[in-house]
Amino acid sequence: MVSITAYGGVNEIGGNKFLLEDKDARIYLDFGQSFDFGTDFFYEYLQPRAAHGLEVYFEFGLIPKIPRLYSKTMLEKTDLKYEKPDIDAVFISHSHSDHVNHVSFLDESIPIYMGHGTHRLVETYHKLYPQFCDLGEHSNLNFFKSGDKIKIKHLTIEPIHVEHSVPGSYGFIIHTSKGPIVYTGDFRLHGPKSEMTKEFIEKATQAKPYAMLIEGTRMGSEQEHNYTEAEVENKVDEIVKESKGIVFGYFSMSNIDRFMSFYRSAVKTRRKLIIDTKFAYILDNMKEKIRDLPDVMDDENIAVYFRLSKSGTYSEKDYYLYERKYMPKMITYENIARDQKKFLMHMSFNKLMELVYIQPKGADYIYSSSEHFLEGEENEDERKVLENWMRHFGVKFHKAHCSGHACRKDLEDVIKAVEPEIVIPIHTESANDFGKFHGKIRILEKEKRMEM
User: What is the count of structural domains for the chain?
Assistant: First the structure.
């Protein structure tokens, strides 16, 4: 009997943790962290002690108390006895925290499978932000590419690349004793690499699946127009061309498509694109996997921003070892302040302090990251701070963004193309809406086993 148990990713966007069982085979599809993880109990400096493993997480029911799953270290201070794990594998669809972040809790011996690019990106972020991104210790870490066929007992798992807002994203076709199951991971069809998602849809259709677990992040969205990455780039082009001063842009450093949109805008408008040392390090580490990326050290269109060091100078000894490589590409606030119109600068929220030194005149700020930040009530304080900074320096605010997820119409078209017997909505707050264009919807309930 094939069954699926959801430990996350139902009635919420993110937090994917799906246990698929078939005869004696047991695998997880993703093992991520919910976006609101711990927000009801932790705040700023009130945080669980890392040395206590899962003790506090179990106390507040933040992590499912599942036997034979977690590492001995994580269970030391809990009342759950450590036992040898009975999970055959965990398959990770991509590097976003809501799909991978709780892998660090798992027993070291459980085989973990992920794409080559996913692993490279996670390890890169771990070096820069070890407190936020950590895979933990694993003695059986395996990497796949699109089209591989991985045998786990009698199961065959086929990873197929999809387009998302982060490189190295995959969906899976799982061949079970009952027939194929499709797991979409997170995907979209409106970016520059939509052909990858189309290939996934084609292979999913050919598999003739009896069930499809499909993400529905935007199923409940009322947005009338599905903005594409090309439209974002065009809007960025217009803003940059019309700007009388420096242009600041904010987008996720892992969103390579968005980086390329801003990079091309900089080249077209003969501005230099400024990134910080962390961003430079990420691009360097992804260059091997993504050939289209410019070379930070060789590209004359890119400069690397160095903050003023603690000694008040730009001495090499004041910077981390990984930063020193980029010193030949150094640009400082003094360089920028002298001729501001020559630059397009990546500017995240936590780097706003640099505006005090740059003293922008006639500047523009393009917000090109998560729409949820601008709309979510929980971000009100942070959003107000951003608005105050823009107002203080007379910076004109713009929004130019498109989602990393498929729109409602695309979700409908994918289901009609694949024609699964059963549709199982995941990663959504609007699961019931899928019933409007498919006759057999199964709704997962958290920690309740659904037999197929």
Answer: 2
